[in-house]
Amino acid sequence: MGWFSSLCSGIKNVASKVVNTVKNVASKAVEKVKDVYQTFTGEKEAKRAKKIYEDAKRKYEDEFKKYQNEKDKIVSSISDSLEKINTHKKEFMESQIKDYLSIISKIKDAQIQSKEVLEVLEIENVIFDTLKSKDQVILIDFDKNRVMNNLKAILTLGFSTRKKARESLERASKESVKVDKAIQEMKSEIERLRQVNNSLENIEFYFAELREVIEDANEHLKFTLNQARTKIVVLSQKLVSSKVSMKNMPKVSLSVFMLTNTLIKVLVEMCKKSYISTGKSELLNKEISEVINLKNNNKKVVSDLREAA
Amino acid sequence: MNKDFEGIRNISPLDMTNYLLKLEICNKETAEELFNKIDNEFETKDGIIDTMIKPALFGMFDGIGRKYKLKVPVSQLVQECTGFNSSSYGSFTNEHDITFESQREFDRKKNDNVYKRNKYRDELSDGKTVKDEYTGERIYKKHKEAEKRNFKNKTTKTGDVDHIIPLKKIYKQVENNPMLTQSDIKEISNSTENYAFINSKLNRSKGDSLNSVVIKENSTLPEGTKQTMLAKHKKAQNNIDKDINKAVVKNLKNKDLRSSASNEIKSKSLNTGKDAAKEGVILRASLLFIKTTYFEISDSLKNGVCHNMGVSCSIEALKKRFKRSINYIMSSLKDVMSGGFKDFLVETIKCGVKLVFDLFAGVVKSIGKIITTGFHAIVQSLKLLISPPPGMSLRERLDAITKLITTTAVGTLLTVSKETILAALPNNPLKDILFILLEGFAVAFVAYLLNKIDIFDVKREMKLKRIEEVFNERISEIKESTDDFKKTSIEVLYEQKKDFVESLNKMKIGIVEKDFDIANEMAFNIAERFNIDLGYSNEDEFIEMVDNEDMLVF
To answer: Which residue of A has its CA nearest to B547?
Structure first.
């Protein structure tokens, strides 16, 4: 029983080894034949083309999403800066400059003719290279029309299918490099927007700081002009047309007047400037001034009518 | 090319945003535009001028150079100097036409076999007359019979046994063959296939000429006779070739003949190898010198003597150029020597193979000629298969080998059939040049066709490589430009803000300390940096402006 069973198990082992080896060899042979056949039909290249295209597409979509998110964040920050700049412009033109005019009315008549340009956010959309559709790139897909494509390959000795597969591979490779280029351009565009944002933040900072200084300077001017006026009255000097003459003005008052005037001029010019000039800001400003003119005209007509009545 | 962003430094802080928005950071060319450019590049590269005319002309120059045994073929010089690269043409050694030394002198008596000829005649006859094997007419076997009948042209009525391939021609073919004995030559020359009984007139006018020549010179011969003569000529030549080969194989058993032939082959091959190596070294060294001098002269003329020399003095630059040339020549001498060694090996083997095949005749000899003529191509092909240049794909290698073998085969085929082609060409002193032209164009045309057909799809592969190359370059350009842009913008924006803050702080201190001169100076600074025209730049101008204006307008 012992030797017989060991003989049987030995035979069994050998047989199973033989079967396994045969199976391995057969599966390797089948793989090899499949490989050769796929090379012959062009299926291998077609698959490669499809993979390249799909990878490129995925990459493009992911990167474009990232680009959009990043762009939205920066544009939102730009929008905040623009809003702040617009507020500075409006507040300055509506109050600070008027305070200044009222202070210097004791020395000189002055008026505002300038109008602030309000910024309108409009960032031009950059057009990147776009991906062609799958149909335009993948000319042969063995996963879709397996029977037809294999038939074509056999009938044309693989020439027709191989040609299409190679053409697909060329097109897919082109799309792949196109995507890499577009991604780099997106990164470049994001960097531009970041610097635009930085630049606007600087401008907003300049507005805030200058307006703060103007407050102080206006106070000094008011004080120094009052002092000068008192001095003139005390010393019984005449006031020309009830205004303090430049000639009689003390040196300090003159210096403060010049400083305030310079800062006001700088701020007026800053208000008149459009920092994102897409044309819309100017257009909006024109529309606003037209509305104001119309309003003024209407007021005049109403008062004339009242007077006439 | 990377963009220059130095312009950002001149922009006022208030204009910066718009400037940055409109600034072109990188090249705006779209991918499609780049693809079109690459397509055009490839179309031009494959243009007929580059792929056909140019190589053809260079090939012709080579041929002419070799024909007139110019030491350095013209095209070689042009190629070396201008960097033109056409792998199919040119090698550094001249063709060495090596043959065996003559073993013997021609002696008709020793080569003729009168007994065999007479026997042949007798076997053909059926009485007094024999059929002329060329014309088909009946003629008298013996001269006496014709004389008896008093024919006007006796020589046309009687005949002789003709050696279809004349004895002298056969002798010329085998005179240098060390593997044949005198008796072998006699045997080969007098095979019955080389005999033809023909009228005496034709036999005498033929002399030592071949039938093909006689036909050309004798236009009065009837068409049927001409055809027969040609057919007999061909058959006789084939038979002689076969007999030569048989005799050589038979004599291989003869130790004396074998050792004398192998000694001659060995010494001639080695000498040829040595000569080739010597010529190769001299040519390579001369070309190295000419090439280096040509580069320095053309570069000096094109870009100036001091170009890339790092000195401004012309004499210094000339000295540097001279030193550079010498250094280059010295460092390249190793390649010259190894090239010479390669020439020695190739030419020795080539000559040995040629001499071995020269022992034979007919088809075997032609095969030998093809092998030796295409030897260079075979060596190159093996080299491409075994150790390809780095970065060369299998497809590119197969394509290069196909082109090399095909163009060489066409050239060799033409060379092997040179005699036939030359015979077909009109009689002209420029026949050889015409043949070279024909050879050049044929080879170039085949190369052009192969390029167009693109069996291994190499063009597409190369195009894809080029696309990848161009796009990678463009991507790194964009990246570098963006980095430069970022660096410069950040730097400039920081500097602008720093300047502003410095002026502002001084101004604030001035206001607090009532030092309004400083405060005003700083306000002017800011206005200037912001590019704002105030209309005044000091207190006097300000007073004047205020006084002159009825009203201050903002």
So the answer is: A246
What are the residue ranges spanned by the domains of chain B?
A: 1-45+457-554, 48-98+260-436, 108-253
On whether any CB of chain A is under 8 Å from the CB of B394, the answer is no
Domain-located, residue A14: no
- Winning range, highest mean pLDDT, from A11-15, B183-187, B409-413: B183-187
| A64 residue type, one letter | F
| Residue-range definition of the domain harbouring residue A228 | 26-293
Q: Is B498 touching A (CB cutoff 8 A)?
A: no
Number of domains in chain A: 1
Choice among A7-16, A72-81, A294-303, B213-222 with the minimum mean pLDDT: A294-303
pLDDT band at residue B90 using 50, 70 and 90 as cut-offs: very low
Predicted ipTM > 0.85 = no
Whether chain B has a CB inside 8 Å of the CB on A93: the answer is: no
Please state, in angstroms and rounded to a whole number, the distance separating the CA atoms of residues B339 and B424: 40
If residue A110 lies in a helix (H) or strand (E), which one and from where to where? strand A110-111
CB atoms within 10 A of CB B211: 24
A255 vs B554: CB contact, 8 Å cut-off?
Answer: no
Q: What is the pTM of this model?
A: 0.60
pLDDT at A283: 46
User: Which H or E run contains A202?
Assistant: helix A159-234
* DSSP code per residue over B260-308: HHHHHHHHHHHHHHHHHHHHHHHHHHHHHHHHHHHHHHHHHHHH-TTTT
pLDDT band for position B63 (cuts 50, 70, 90):
low
Domain membership flag for residue A99? yes
The torsion angles phi and psi of B195, rounded to 5 degrees, stand at -105, 145
Q: Which of B23, B467, B493 sits opposite A174 (nearest CB)?
A: B467
CA–CA gap between residue B479 and residue B502 (Å, rounded): 34
